[in-house]
Design a protein that fits this description.
By secondary structure, the chain is α/β, with parallel strands linked by helices. The chain is built from eight helices and nine strands.
């Protein structure tokens, strides 16, 4: 069994206007021999917030609610497991090679949340493995949730969204920080991380934390071309 087949739902968060990221994500899926399938592997329309509110940035609010709505959609559809992907994911070639091994490890142990992609330094020349981890994890671009933990996160995120910023019980924040906050408050969470990292972020314009050159009309297209050339050189 492949990893994407193991999960009941796979959602790829993508803003409707970011057709560039959608196209790049489709290329990424094709290279991994993964096909879109309605009701299983599909793009999820990301939320673009109109006001920042108590969140760190406008993009943070949209991203926070996009992840939350993914979980709620999976719950409404009766899915027991959900894999969430952000549209700038770059799947490591090793992920495809070791998929069957990864599924066996998911099936052989209890887990709440599994990070296939992260920013941890986990060098390894051995076959991929999923290992328990209780520290903080940056990024939320390639992770899976089981039914029980997903429902707990839904409740927490809904409460955090309406609290003031910096609230001791958790307030508005980036989604990866929100998950980390909840994990820290609930140390019994069974977290697995992939070793080595099996999903990085492609270099592309961010709608959550845009760089200065991505806000200058004359430079946006040039920077985009440069990023695409860089990716092709790196993946050759």
């Amino acid at each position: 069994m492949r990893v994407f087949d193991y999960f009941d739902r796979v959602y790829i968060i993508n803003l409707a206007e970011r057709t560039d990221r959608r196209s790049e994500m489709l290329e990424e899926l094709a290279q991994a021999k993964i096909e879109l399938k309605q009701g299983h592997v599909e793009f999820f329309p990301a939320i673009r917030a109109k006001e920042k509110g108590e969140f760190p940035t406008l993009g943070a609010r949209g991203c926070f609610h996009s992840h939350l709505e993914c979980w709620k959609k999976a719950k409404a559809e009766g899915a027991k497991t959900v894999l969430v992907i952000e549209d700038d994911l770059q799947i490591a070639p090793r992920f495809v090679v070791d998929e069957h091994r990864l599924v066996e490890q998911l099936q052989s142990q209890p887990w709440d949340i599994v990070y296939f992609g992260h920013a941890l330094d986990t060098p390894s020349d051995q076959p991929s493995e999923l290992v328990p981890f209780d520290g903080g994890i940056i990024l939320a671009h390639f992770y899976g949730l089981n039914e029980t933990y997903r429902d707990q996160l839904i409740e927490f995120f809904e409460q955090a969204a309406v609290r003031p910023g910096g609230h001791p019980d958790g307030g508005p924040m980036y989604p990866d920080a929100g998950i980390n906050f909840y994990r820290a408050k609930n140390p019994g969470s069974r977290t697995l991380v992939a070793r080595p990292n099996l999903g990085t972020q492609r270099s592309s314009r961010s709608d959550v934390t845009p760089k200065w050159h991505d806000r200058v009309p004359g430079l946006k297209s040039l920077v985009g071309i440069a990023r695409r050339v860089k990716r092709k050189l790196v993946t050759r």
